[in-house]
Q: What sequence folds into this?
């Protein structure tokens, strides 16, 4: 656990970057600090490993005052990932990852074999080990940055906008892998970003800071979206938040209707209504308009684009399945991707309204 | 003229010293000798100072001061110091010429070494320095393990530039009656023995080129391949280096001086 | 030698003090007595410092463009210019005449040698300066409709000016110092003041010509450097706008 206890950073010119911050980052969870520029989120993060010394207040690492030990010893116990990765250009990838173990006096052989494991863990081919940072793309460098922070197996990790310098597709991929990795490792993580979507996607808890370095609200993402404490948080969280909040509500058992189906290669059925086409294992492939197809059902006749709702998924996924379906009937599947049935947007809205009735 | 020069150079008598004349080998040794002394002193002074200034960001005015020294005309300073110092040693040893020469040589060699070491450390990307501290390196470890190796390319170019200036100026030291390969140039000039003069020029040029080549080789095997860009073609990522290359160029330019 | 040096220190200090205190008067009277000759030398020194840099720039622009345009030209060109810049000036002075067929002590050898130096230095500067022009800018210029020649003179070259003028400053300041070296082999310029000072100091030190030479060389270097800076500023008004 990391605890900010009235942590304050004032600069000699009078600027207050962080003002009496009270915040807890629970063990094993991802706490995201988010806010506009100038809100002191990076300063707060950097006060934890004392890259910036607080002017007053204390930051606790479990029961230890972070100011009670030499800064470099503290930092070796805390993983640190920054925006441009900051890999050492003169060292190979494997030696970059082994930096902290080397500092702690781990033997070369042991440190390197651990580094190799970590490279694999973050999804990098071991062939990269002998290369230099200049030979890697931005996304690959950032993976190495994460591996390097994990090398000494620190219980705590600080991440300062680690994914903001890569393109959106790679960012999405890195975020997913980061969540998978955290699922395996369960580190205590403080994560800084200016991107509210990233905060909501990654955070177990999201702390919104306002300019001047004060805490506006700290809450799980769903609560932040559904119950912002004031107009600043509401404005920062942005539009579509009602819709996005549905992404945090489990749908429970979805009431489904049987949906007539056709199979690829079979004769085109009669009628005017769109028909769902499935494969041999009942997995939905797309919709077919009987009026515009002849003979047998071919791949090329299918209308795609509808999303699928998984039974036990979120209300957002269920509603989206309805709205995106060419037939307006949302397709529900089980965890193996097999067709269970369909439902309409109206039925999902009923579920939402029932869900929101005061308990 | 070329034939005469070739003849002069291939005359074995010119290579060995006699009672009256110092041969090429001994002059070469002398030339390398006082160049080496000056470079070692300049390196001991300039390198730690430059690294320290770059690492701490303190006393940067020193870099400006040291660079201003470059506007001084080498010959003038050499002659001035000889005239000031030499009479104190009159008739005793050649220390009267050696000391001012060494002072001038050190004075010349310190600026490129110091300012390039400074610039090399300064040029380390902020993210890299930040990461190094964030990993838990102490200030000294950051300097030794991150800043110094990353500054090496610029440090080398500064040192090579210093070496060339020292070798060139050591040649001019022969003008103030010191030994070294410049002796052949100025003696040849005085005696209107042009083959000797041209041979002297050739020998000096050959010395400068071979020393620079030697240093280039040392550089090649000391500087990390991650910095030089000498990487296997397959794995090379598109170079974004135009900007950083011109940044380095500016530093390298500044280290070039009068020969 | 250490005992000799220790012994020498008080004497040395005395000499320095003497050099400093006695010089102003002697220094000015020396200058006034030899005014015409000194100004001639200063004039010669100035020409020898400036003209080779201009020649070098004229040669370096097309060569640097070539090295930038055809990447296979870059490495060999940098090797050749690097080797050239490695040769000490005094050696280059005495090697030029036999190479180009001049008299061993032709007055042309100094400007030729200095032009070679300046070219060697500036080729790389021009090539790297052009390489630093953002690709986006070049693409935009092409898209607007610039033809290659026009684009070079109106877009690429102006953007490369700061890098090129940085190179010009180094070349011109270095030249002032190198020209003085040519004085030691009897070429007419301020270096002759050092030669004269050295010869007049055989028995007792005589500082005025030496100090005068150093002062004039430094002043000349500063003035020429300032001129290049002024040129740079007038050619790149957009940088001044940002600097504020």
A:
């Amino acid at each position: 656990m990391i605890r900010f206890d009235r942590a304050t950073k004032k600069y000699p010119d009078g600027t207050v970057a962080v003002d009496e911050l009270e915040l807890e980052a629970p063990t094993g969870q991802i706490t995201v600090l988010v806010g506009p520029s100038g809100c002191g989120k990076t300063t707060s993060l950097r006060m934890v490993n004392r890259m910036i010394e607080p002017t007053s207040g204390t930051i606790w690492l479990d029961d230890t005052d972070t100011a009670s030990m030499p800064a470099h010893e503290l930092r070796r116990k805390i993983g640190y990932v920054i925006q441009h990765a900051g890999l050492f250009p003169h060292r190979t990838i494997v030696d970059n990852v082994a930096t902290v173990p080397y500092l702690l006096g781990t033997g070369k052989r042991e440190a390197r074999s651990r580094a190799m494991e970590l490279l694999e863990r973050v999804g990098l081919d071991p062939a990269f080990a002998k290369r230099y940072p200049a030979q890697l793309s931005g996304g690959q460098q950032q993976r190495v940055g994460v591996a390097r922070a994990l090398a000494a197996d620190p219980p705590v990790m600080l991440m300062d906008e680690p994914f903001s310098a890569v393109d959106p597709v790679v960012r999405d991929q890195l975020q997913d892998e980061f969540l998978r990795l955290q699922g395996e490792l369960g580190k205590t993580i403080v994560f800084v970003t200016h991107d509210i979507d990233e905060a909501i996607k990654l955070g177990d808890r999201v702390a919104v800071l306002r300019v001047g370095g004060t805490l506006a609200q700290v809450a799980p993402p769903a609560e932040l979206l559904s119950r912002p404490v004031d107009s600043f948080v509401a404005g920062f969280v942005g539009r579509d938040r009602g819709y996005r909040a549905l992404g945090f509500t489990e749908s429970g058992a979805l009431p489904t209707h049987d949906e007539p189906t056709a199979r690829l290669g079979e004769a085109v059925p009669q009628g005017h209504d769109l028909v769902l086409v499935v494969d041999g294992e009942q997995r939905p492939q797309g919709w077919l308009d009987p009026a515009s197809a002849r003979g047998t059902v071919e791949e090329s006749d299918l209308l795609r684009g509808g999303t699928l709702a998984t039974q036990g998924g979120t209300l957002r996924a269920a509603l989206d399945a309805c709205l995106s379906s060419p037939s307006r009937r949302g397709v529900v599947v089980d965890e193996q991707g097999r067709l269970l049935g369909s439902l309409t947007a109206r039925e999902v809205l009923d579920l939402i309204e029932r869900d929101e009735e005061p308990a | 003229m070329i034939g005469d020069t070739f003849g002069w150079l291939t005359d074995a008598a010119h290579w060995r010293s006699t009672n009256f004349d110092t041969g090429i080998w001994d002059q070469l040794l002398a030339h390398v000798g006082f160049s080496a002394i000056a470079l070692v002193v300049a390196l001991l002074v300039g390198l730690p100072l430059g690294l320290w200034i770059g690492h701490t960001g303190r006393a940067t005015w020193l870099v400006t001061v040291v660079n201003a020294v470059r506007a001084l005309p080498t010959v003038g300073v050499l002659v001035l110091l000889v005239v000031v110092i030499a009479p104190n040693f009159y008739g005793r040893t050649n220390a009267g010429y050696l000391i001012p020469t060494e002072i001038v040589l050190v004075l010349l060699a310190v600026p490129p070494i110091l300012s390039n070491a400074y610039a090399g450390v300064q040029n380390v990307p902020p993210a890299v320095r930040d990461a190094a501290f964030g990993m838990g390196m102490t200030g000294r470890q950051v300097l030794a393990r991150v800043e110094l190796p990353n500054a090496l390319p610029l440090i080398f170019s500064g040192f090579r530039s210093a070496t060339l200036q020292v070798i060139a100026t050591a040649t001019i030291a022969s003008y103030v009656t010191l030994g070294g390969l410049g002796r052949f140039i100025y003696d040849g000039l005085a005696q209107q023995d042009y083959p000797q003069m041209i041979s002297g020029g050739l020998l000096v040029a050959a010395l400068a080129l071979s020393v620079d080549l030697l240093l280039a080789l040392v550089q090649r095997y000391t500087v990390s391949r991650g910095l030089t860009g000498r990487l296997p073609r397959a794995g090379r990522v598109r170079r974004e280096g135009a900007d950083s290359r011109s940044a380095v160029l500016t530093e390298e330019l500044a280290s070039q001086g009068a020969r | 030698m250490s005992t000799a040096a220790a012994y020498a220190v008080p004497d040395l200090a005395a000499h320095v003090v003497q050099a400093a205190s006695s010089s102003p008067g002697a220094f000015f009277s020396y200058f006034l007595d030899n005014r015409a000759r000194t100004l001639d030398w200063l004039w010669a020194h100035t020409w020898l410092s400036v003209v080779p840099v201009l020649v070098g720039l004229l040669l370096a622009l097309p060569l640097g463009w070539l090295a930038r345009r055809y990447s296979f030209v870059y490495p060999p060109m940098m090797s050749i210019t690097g080797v050239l810049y490695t040769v000490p000036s005094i050696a280059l002075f005495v090697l030029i005449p036999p190479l180009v067929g001049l008299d061993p002590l032709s007055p042309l050898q100094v400007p030729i040698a200095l032009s070679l130096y300046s070219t060697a230095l500036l080729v790389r500067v021009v090539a790297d300066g052009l390489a630093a022009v953002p690709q986006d800018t070049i693409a935009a210029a092409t898209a607007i409709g610039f033809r290659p020649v026009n684009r070079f003179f109106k877009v690429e070259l102006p953007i490369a000016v700061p890098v090129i003028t940085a190179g010009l400053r180094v070349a011109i300041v270095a030249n002032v110092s190198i020209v003085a070296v040519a004085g030691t082999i009897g070429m007419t310029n301020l270096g002759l003041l050092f030669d004269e000072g050295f010869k007049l100091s055989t028995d007792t030190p005589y500082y005025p010509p030496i100090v005068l030479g150093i002062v004039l060389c430094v002043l000349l270097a500063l003035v020429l450097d300032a001129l290049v800076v002024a040129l740079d500023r007038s050619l790149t008004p957009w940088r001044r706008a940002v600097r504020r």
Remarks:
- Residues 167 and 207 of chain B are 8 Å apart (CA to CA).
- The domain at 24-224+240-255 of chain B is CATH 1.10.3720.10 (MetI-like fold).
- DSSP finds eleven helices and no strands in chain B.
- Residues 233-247 of chain B have pLDDT under 50 and may be disordered.
